[in-house]
Amino acid sequence: MTDGARRSASDVTVLVTGATGFVGRRLTPALVEAGHTVRAMTRRPEEYDGPGDPVGADVHDPDTLGPALEGVDVAVYLVHSLDSDDFEERDAAAATAFGEAAAAAGVRQIIYLGGLGAEGAELSPHLRSRREVEGLLGAAGVPVTVLRAAIVVGHGGISWELTRQLVKNLPAMVVPQWVGTRTQPIGIDDVVRYLVGVVDEPKAVGKVFEIGGPDQLTYLEMLQIAAEVRDGRRLPILQVPVLTPRLSSYWLALVTDVDVTTGRNLIDSMGTEVLVTDDSIKDVVPGEPVSYAEAVRRALEERGRED
């Protein structure tokens, strides 16, 4: 598709799956503000009170997808099943069904928020599943734009909630060795900015991009910075050599409200270094992302407004 053939924003109909979720509920108003016609896909459309037109559908019920995708130009796929023990199989089946329905409906671009991880690396089941979904979404022929991210920092995000609640609930912490693994967190505002920026963008169609904030940090450093931003204190932390993902997930369930299954699936990925190695996204969506400390400050501020 050439720049000349690209439709104006007002002509682009965008379907957002998971419209009531952590990313989706921020993305829908940003897309509306950008001038797009937005369909907010949710399993309970009668309860939806955000911007855009609510449409009822479920990625795990293929029969519901056709009507939801009819007339859609771009579909943003924000679905995962980390709270299920069989999440790999569920996510693979859902991605396959969605890709087929999108192709049948004539959708011209699918946008997927995936996970960082070096090509050829030994990935955790969580990251391996994210990579598999990338391919399955496009298997029926619709070009897929992938934005691969590590931890997304924002109020209500699972990974951020783990960090916030640990810092809030524990005066000191005993942690496993995986806290020394480096990652590249990104603020939710920048994730939304990148998602909006690649919608119906010819330079992004069919491409894979890595997105991250400016800071490459260990999980230990992330905990320390979060404690300093939140309370102005340094969090005493002791690393221990043996604390398996399963034991870590039970420990998290004791001191946070994140369930054991989700916690274990996330922790499995924390031994894998996930860093941005290609910043070509900035050629498509200009602008510098905010620092981790600033993303933490914004997340805490948003939570404070809701309390």
Describe what you observe in this structure.
It is a single chain. This protein is of the alpha/beta class. The chain has a domain at 9-150 and 187-211 and 276-288: Rossmann fold. The protein is 40% helix and 16% strand. It has helices spanning 24-33, 65-69, 87-105, 125-138, 158-169, 188-198, 219-231, 245-255, 260-267, 281-284, 292-306, and strands at residues 13-16, 37-42, 53-56, 74-77, 109-115, 144-149, 152-153, 173-176, 182-183, 186-187, 208-210, 217-218, 237-240. The protein has a 7-stranded parallel sheet, sandwiched between helices. The protein has a two-stranded parallel ribbon with strand order 7-10. The protein has a two-stranded parallel ribbon with strand order 8-13. α1 (24-33) links the parallel β1 (13-16) and β2 (37-42). α3 runs parallel beside α4, α5 crosses α7 and α8 (245-255) crosses α9. The longest helix has 19 residues, at 87-105. Residues 1-9 have low confidence and may be disordered.
**The CATH homology group name of the domain at 9-150 and 187-211 and 276-288:** NAD(P)-binding Rossmann-like Domain
Shape: globular
By helix and strand content, what is the structural category? alpha/beta
| Percent range of helical residues | 25-40%
Distance between the termini: 47 Å
List the helices and strands and how they pair.
Elements: E1 13-16, H1 24-33, E2 37-42, E3 53-56, H2 65-69, E4 74-77, H3 87-105, E5 109-115, H4 125-138, E6 144-149, E7 152-153, H5 158-169, E8 173-176, E9 182-183, E10 186-187, H6 188-198, E11 208-210, E12 217-218, H7 219-231, E13 237-240, H8 245-255, H9 260-267, H10 281-284, H11 292-306
Parallel strand pairs: 1-2, 1-4, 2-3, 4-5, 5-6, 6-11, 7-10, 8-13
Antiparallel strand pairs: 9-12
Helix pairs in contact: 1-6, 3-4, 5-7, 7-11, 8-9
